[in-house]
Fold this sequence. Notes:
The structure is a single chain. This protein is an all-alpha fold. The protein has one domain (48-185): Tetracycline Repressor, domain 2 (Orthogonal Bundle). The protein contains nine helices and no strands. It has helices at residues 3-21, 28-35, 39-43, 49-71, 85-102, 104-114, 121-147, 155-168, 174-185. The longest helix is centred in the C-terminal third of the chain and has 27 residues, at 121-147.
Amino acid sequence: xxxxxxxxxxxxxxxxxxxxxxxxxxxxxxxxxxxxxxxxxxxxxxxxxxxxxxxxxxxxxxxxxxxxxxxxxxxxxxxxxxxxxxxxxxxxxxxxxxxxxxxxxxxxxxxxxxxxxxxxxxxxxxxxxxxxxxxxxxxxxxxxxxxxxxxxxxxxxxxxxxxxxxxxxxxxxxxxxxxxxxxxxxx
Length: 187
């Protein structure tokens, strides 16, 4: 087996296992068996389970983040409801929903982290990525708060709430999700 294929098989098999059983539910021997590689072949790429888990986050998170960076830009147009906050939330949801369809296994891993215990190994390994996501969305809500003062001071809470709501409602039609979320933040 060539090195590139072995690396790809290990990464993909690990992702599949983590998406099905969570980080703690997967052992190195599970990964070896699923990827059809020996322990020494695995060790030629990754030192341990933490390293392959981190590599998965490095591989997949950047695509989501780059797409969200553009979608999360708030362009104030308070006179046009569809393009103002509604348009920003709609864009964010649409990007994440599209990502969840294109990369369902990584999306399952991403969702699981939100509810992982704070001191869990999985949470520790990817907390920097999750923080990047929350900071991006907090910045969006900070910009929204400059125009819509009622949300000022709640930027981080709204960012966490948005991620939670998206994770729980990923199958909703984007306009329906956006209306529900908007109703919650402007009540």
